[in-house]
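Hi team,

As requested, here is the filled-out complex form for the flavin-adenine dinucleotide run. I kept the field names the same as last time so the parser does not choke. Let me know if anything looks off before we queue the next batch.

— J.
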Amino acid sequence: MEILEIRKSLKNLILGDVLWDEEILKFYSVDSSFYQTIPKIVVVPKTEKDVILAVKFATKNKISITVRGAGTGLVGGALTENIVLDLKNLNKIKIKNDYAYVGTGVIKGILDRELKSKGKFFPPNPSIGPFCAIGGMIGNNASGSRTLKYGSTIDNIQEITFVDGRGRKITLPENHAIGKKITKFAKKIKKKYYPKVSKNSCGYRLDCVNSIKETHKVFIGSEGTLGIILSAKLCLKKIPSKRLLFVVEYTSPKSAAIDCIKIKKTFPSAIEFVDKPTLENIDFKFKKNTNCLLFVEYDSNIQKNEKTFFNLISGKLVKKLMKQKEIEKWWKYRDLALSYSLKSIKKENQNPHLIEDATVPLEKLAKLFSIIEKLGNKFQIRTVMYGHAGNGNIHLRIVSGRQKSKQLEKISKWYFNQIFRMGGTISGEHGDGIARSNFVKKQYGEKNYQVFKKFKKYLDPKNILNPGKIIDTKK
Ligand SMILES: Cc1cc2nc3c(=O)[nH]c(=O)nc-3n(C[C@H](O)[C@H](O)[C@H](O)COP(=O)(O)OP(=O)(O)OC[C@H]3O[C@@H](n4cnc5c(N)ncnc54)[C@H](O)[C@@H]3O)c2cc1C
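And here is what came back:
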């Protein structure tokens, strides 16, 4: 079928919008990554039935579909040259006591506001703040500063409803027939090749499926390649009545990393790291030789930690904050770290976000900082760092001239090999996308990769759901 015919047939088929104006296609051709891919059609379903019809149509006409949330992903996961599916109309929110049913088009900031009025929150908190969609958080297994205490998205979802590549609407873990099949795939996985980390957004998380009750988890972090998620049941927590934030300055990342291990034992809700470009943007006079900061937050055992924290650290305590407004002000500095980092790098010196998200076991964090230093010397590049130190998750930006793609590949290969040696993952939260899907096989090994491929085929036999992301069906 010709593309114009496809556009018109889709328009006749569904209640929602089917768009192909040049400006609209351009808008959907980018996300927050460095990539641009112009789609042929944008479909904005009005109902869940529209999604099913669109998937069945795509399967029949052999044209792929890539679902998109708010487009804040950093690795091009939501980009495609075929159909983009924008689920912004699936935006219902139903809040119960300790859980909520939400459509995946719900924007996080809107959910946060509704939950706040009831004294609740949904724990995963990407630094992008209110702007991402629940679908994108599920698609990437997003996390944030509070993941240290409350886990990633995968740890905070009880149920999902999705449409698979055959156009079947399925709810898990409720659907036992499909659940049983999934558990069979999960049993085939060699867990010893999975990274030993506290957060992981690379590949398929079949390692989290230990029983039928957990079968929904494998869709979290699957980047729209196994199913299009329509809605989810989210776990909620009570907003803590008090918080306590410490800011500590260090002369080297390694000493901060060593402190992280001691601090983690006191159960903080967050341990975050920023280096020079961020601290230079903070309205505070740090010591001249300050190289980096840790932000450490507690939302329980406040009194005890207030008294004992000083004894734990080797760095210099520069702030102890207990007032909500002050705490928010300082978290804003941390949340803007990506923006400060990019601001500190001239446009012609910026590079794709390729090796920006690796995560290692916390005991290996100091080693990770040495590896990053080595990387700089070996490839003659400067780097900027920030991230979720308590989880061993450090975001890295390469400075020093736009690298040729061959050189970037060399840098990535070298860096990821070091990450694998430390038992780490190439992505702790941003996913594989266009940037690094070709490293998934190396991370999990040939046997696990073949299970991934068969699993994908079971749910999406015609390979129409976001093809090329996470796995390459031809490999
Ligand atoms: C400044 C900045 C800071 C950030 N900080 C963090 C951070 O601290 N932690 C973090 O984890 N991330 C962070 N991110 C990355 C990103 O914001 C998150 O991963 C976010 O959850 C993506 O949501 P989105 O709605 O924008 O997804 P999109 O970019 O639209 O999509 C992301 C992926 O999810 C898939 N997807 C979208 N909707 C669905 C659905 N309904 N069903 C199945 N798959 C779907 C897409 O196909 C794509 O593969 C940051 C990004 C920026 C720009």
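Two things worth flagging: The mean pLDDT is 95. The pocket of flavin-adenine dinucleotide is lined by residues 31-32, 66-74, 77-78, 87, 104, 126-128, 132-133, 135-137, 139-140, 142-144, 223-224, 228-229, 338, 429-430, 466 (CB under 6 Å).

Thanks,
J.
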